[in-house]
Amino acid sequence: xMRAVLTIASRELRSLFLSPLAWTLLAVLFAIAAYMFMAAVxxxxxxxxxxxxxxxxxxxxxxxxxVAPMLGNAAVLLLLIMPMLTMxxxxxxxxxxxxxxxxxxxxxxxxxxxxxxxxxxxxLAITVSLLALPPLLLFFFGNPDPxxxxxxxxxxxxxxxxxxxxxxxxxxxxDNPIVAALAAFGLLLLLWVASWMGEAGGSGVxxxxxxxxxxxxxxxFLTGVVSSTDLVYFLLLAAVGLLFARQRLMAERIRG
Length: 256
Fold this sequence. Notes:
This protein is an all-alpha fold and 256 residues long. Helix content is 82%, strand content 0%.
C-alpha cells in the first residue's frame, strides 16, 4: 500500500511543479508574505522608538509584532489560494478524461486519496519552509521566541493541510474545477467565520461554533500554545475531508 501511495504522491508533486499555476501562486504568496513581514518589522521599529521616550520599550515582543502578523496574513492568503490548487486533484482529471483509468485501477480508493493528499502535503511543506525564511532573519538582528515561531509554522502547516483536505473533498464531488474551487472556498470561509455568529446563538450554539472556527484554533498556535484540542481539530477536519473523498470514489466505482 505504502509504495502505491508514494508513487501517486511523487506523481502529484511533480505535476504541481510542472504547473505554471502552482509556481505563480507560490511566488505571489511568498512575495506578499515577505512584504507584510517587512512592513511589520518597520512598524515594530517605529513603535519601539515611540515608546522608548516613555521607558516602555520592554513591553514589546518582537515575535508578537512581526512573526504572528505575517503568519496570520499568510493564512488568509492560503484560504484564497488552496481552492485553486486543490480543484485540479480530481475535477481536472475528470474533465480531461484521465480519471476513468485511475478510478478503475486495482488500487484501493484510500490509496488513491492518500497518494494525492500526500503529494499536496509535500508541496505545502515546501511552501511553509519558504515562508519561514523571512522570520529566520530576525535571529541575526534580534531575539525572537523560537518556540513561538515553530508553533506558528506548525499551525500554518496544519491549517493549510486542513484546507487541502476540504479542497480535495470538493474536487472529488464534481467534474468542474471552477465549481470545485468555489465549493471549497465557500466551505472554508464558513469555517473561518464560524465564531462570528457565536454571540448570536445560545450558549450551546456558541460553544459549537467556537469549536468549529478555524481561526480560534489557529490563533492559539500563533501565541505559542500547542494544545491537543487544536491538534485533534485539524486532524479531524482533514480526516473528514479524506473520508468524504473516499466515499465519492467508491460510489463512482459502483456506478461504473
